[in-house]
Write a structure and sequence with these properties.
mainly alpha, Serine Threonine Protein Phosphatase 5, Tetratricopeptide repeat, two-stranded antiparallel ribbon
């Protein structure tokens, strides 16, 4: 059944993303407006723009069917998938198969050209891009009839498109490794599809180089910066000028242009004007990581009227939710990452310590007995909205963070350290940690690599379940160690140690796209499925093939 549905929807997905097919949800319901009419109507454009956030949390967004794939839920898919790829998250319960994302962690299956775990990351982002292109293509920025508001809508679409291509770049641009031979595709990213790309051009549209993609993304961000300078979006559901600066900081980090990354991270912080999540907010059992606050620069939100009981973020990530898969899979943190968190750091209380109440006075809507019976290292970071653990339309109708200001502080720290001297970067890191996370924190080193890895560790702690640290780890290639004395990896398939990166960190372009685009034939990333299998002996790396 799964394979048949996969084929059934493949042609639809290709036409809706790479070619010029229309995506219905970008237009107001029951609309028959033409492109020209939309281009002259601020209200019609507003309807298209307002559809962007809801599209990004749409359940069964690509396949359109609950029978196919429960990871098919728009942007939140990347939050969990990237955390699992890092090895920082895994199912700790007796029913780990209910964690639909675990192959991202193990890489033992389903990452080839014909598999779900290449298909969904690719087509989800290109469908987002298609919606961005629809908006950009309807607005004539040179026309005197184009209002400041309409230009602002264009700015939002350019910023969204830039971010989506950044995501594609970090997921599909290959990093050299000892497990798969990437020599033929090193330095290649993905094809660029814009509002001007016609169907014939899409059939022979090559992967562009890293430098070409950088130039394209930065060009979009420059346009967004100009267009949003005089326009403030209605809410944090849409990228603001501060978010544009934040995306620039992320993009420059991937390029290892540390001076520009530091500049734009600081501009994002100053322009946004918000402050990091407080301890009280972090640990609140009714609002923690389900309600936007002063730290959230950009976020999405689930509507109670428009969500499913299973294919939603809280239902996958919150062990307290009684309606979703997480009630059976019990998502938790890798014990070695947990051990990296100081006991004086309140972020540690997001996970159940083996000592339970002897370590901390945990609070849960499910009560003390639930805590006592919880699996060690289980997460309680993402709470059910309003503390409702039983009603998915209440507890699951959450806000979802897409960019928090804390990321900019970490980017600034690493980027300053790599462009102005390690000591300056260490000072930035210590300042953030001591002010906002752990007054006892005091890191010291003069070694650049050690410093970068410490920033990465803190990002992995800070953004557990949000996926934000994945591009940093892929850039730094820190080794993946999941089999060690005392590991809490739940089975042998998770007990893998990889030198540099896991091979599945380089995602594969799906066969539907390769077949439709002749320029991709012979230029795909190698299949990482099953290249590394557990258990890797403790103290050793899995042997490489290169």
């Amino acid at each position: 059944m799964k394979k048949n549905i996969f084929k059934l929807f493949s042609a639809l997905a290709v036409s809706a993303t790479v070619l010029t097919g229309c995506i219905e949800e970008t237009f107001p319901e029951n609309s028959t407006a033409t492109s020209d009419q939309i281009g002259t109507s601020a209200s019609a454009l507003e309807g298209m723009v307002n559809g962007l956030p809801s599209q990004q949390v749409q359940w069964y967004f690509v396949y359109g069917s609950a029978e196919q794939e429960e990871t098919d839920m728009g942007y939140p898919m990347y939050m969990i998938a990237q955390t699992e790829m890092l090895g920082d998250m895994m199912a700790l319960g007796s029913e780990p198969g209910y964690d639909w994302f675990f192959p991202y962690n193990t890489g033992h299956t389903a990452f080839g050209e014909q598999d779900t775990y290449s298909y969904l990351p690719w087509f989800t982002l290109y469908r987002f891009i298609k919606s961005n292109n629809d908006i950009i293509g309807t607005i004539d920025l040179e026309s005197e009839a184009t209002t400041t508001e309409m230009k602002g809508f264009a700015g939002i679409a350019y910023a969204e498109r830039a971010f989506n291509y950044y995501m594609l770049m970090t997921l599909f641009e290959p990093v050299d490794n000892i497990y798969t031979d990437c020599s033929n595709v090193l330095g290649l990213t993905v094809p660029i599809v814009t509002e001007a790309t016609d169907p014939e051009a899409a059939k022979n549209n090559p992967r562009v180089s890293h430098d070409e993609m950088m130039a394209f993304i930065l060009s979009d961000l420059d346009k967004a910066e100009e267009l949003l300078a005089d326009y403030t979006p209605s809410s944090g559901l849409f990228p603001s000028l501060a978010v544009v600066y934040g995306i620039k900081a992320k993009v420059y980090m991937w390029d290892e242009d540390y001076a520009n990354a530091a500049t734009y991270a600081r501009m994002a912080i100053d322009t946004f004007g918000g402050t990091p999540v407080t301890e009280a907010q972090w640990l609140d059992m009714t609002t923690a990581f389900n309600t936007a606050n002063q730290a959230w620069m950009w976020y999405l939100t689930y509507s109670p009227e428009n969500m499913s009981n299973l294919c939603n973020f809280i239902g996958h990530i919150s062990g307290e939710a009684q309606w979703g898969y997480s009630a059976l899979s019990y998502p938790g943190i890798l014990s070695s990452l947990y051990d990296h968190i100081a006991d004086t750091d309140f972020r540690k209380y997001s996970f159940i310590d083996p000592a339970k109440f002897d370590f901390y006075d945990y609070q849960s809507p499910l009560g003390a007995e639930w805590i006592e019976n919880a699996i060690p290292y289980q997460s309680i970071k993402f709470r059910c909205k309003q503390g409702d653990v039983n009603t998915y339309t209440v507890g699951g109708a959450a806000d979802v963070p897409k960019m928090r200001v804390e990321e900019m502080y970490f980017i600034e720290a690493e980027a300053v350290g790599m462009s102005q001297g390690v000591a300056a970067g260490v000072a930035k890191l210590n300042s953030f940690m001591q002010t906002y996370r752990d007054p006892a924190y005091n890191f010291n080193t003069s070694d650049a690599r050690e410093f970068q890895l410490e920033v990465m560790w803190q990002m992995r702690i800070e953004f557990w379940g949000e996926g934000v640290a994945f591009p940093t780890a892929k850039r730094l290639q820190p080794d993946a160690i999941q089999n060690y004395e005392g590991t809490n990896a739940p089975s042998n398939r998770f007990k893998i140690n990889c030198r540099g990166i896991k091979p599945q960190w380089n995602l594969v372009i799906p066969i539907e796209e390769v077949d439709a685009n002749v320029a991709l034939q012979g230029n795909n990333n190698p299949n990482p499925s099953g290249v590394v299998t557990g258990p890797t002996p403790i103290g050793e790396f899995a042997p490489g093939n290169n």
